[in-house]
Specification:
single chain, 15% strand, five-stranded antiparallel β-sheet
Length: 191
């Protein structure tokens, strides 16, 4: 395959290699992966990433990966088919722009990651999301992102449940300390 000479010849070769049409087997594999990701997720956020730089896309992917969130760029038809196969009532074709989906293992994870990144990267626009199998709009996704995660709520609950015991131990040790101090003072007076 001869693509000519010049500074962009290599880029054209790479573009030809990566822009080749996918086979039916590759498409079915991609669909199965995306369907499994939708089934495993408890929350999803749809993002319009038009105009975002490669550097910012990589930053978004790293941030999502560190938070345990899958960030997937796919065609709207593929997203719609995978979401419906996983039990979500969704039509991605109604969304404007280039669509990516962030899939989280908890209800808040994907929303919080994407909301934080949309503050840093202005090209990242939240289009909506899914929660408990139904579609929610962008404002609801942003409200969801403001909530603490399930792990944070469990930690707060453990702290609240543990607080009375800590208070009781502190009180009892204070009484014991006071009793020992009183005995020490009585012993000093006798001596």
């Amino acid at each position: 395959l001869f693509l000519g000479r010049g500074p962009h010849a290599c880029l054209r070769l790479i573009a030809v290699i990566f822009c080749m049409a996918k086979s039916k087997a590759q498409k079915s594999t991609d669909l199965a992966r995306l369907t499994d990701a939708f089934k495993a997720s408890k929350g999803a956020v749809f993002v319009d990433y038009k105009g975002i730089t490669v550097k910012n896309v990589n930053k978004l992917r790293r941030t999502a990966e560190n938070a345990g969130v899958d960030y997937v760029v796919a065609k709207k038809t593929l997203i719609t088919i995978a979401a419906r196969a996983a039990g979500f009532d969704l039509n991605a074709k109604t969304m404007d722009g280039n669509i990516a989906v962030a899939l989280g293992q908890d209800e808040v994870g994907a929303a919080s990651v994407v909301a934080a990144m949309s503050k840093d990267i202005e090209q990242v626009k939240i289009l909506g999301g899914t929660l408990e199998g139904r579609f929610i709009d962008a404002s609801q996704v942003k409200a969801l992102a403001a909530l603490p995660s399930k792990q944070q709520l469990l930690a707060q609950l453990a702290f609240v449940l543990n607080a009375p015991r800590v208070g009781l131990v502190t009180t009892l040790s204070g009484i014991t300390r006071g009793f020992v101090t009183a005995l020490a003072q009585v012993q000093e007076k006798k001596a």
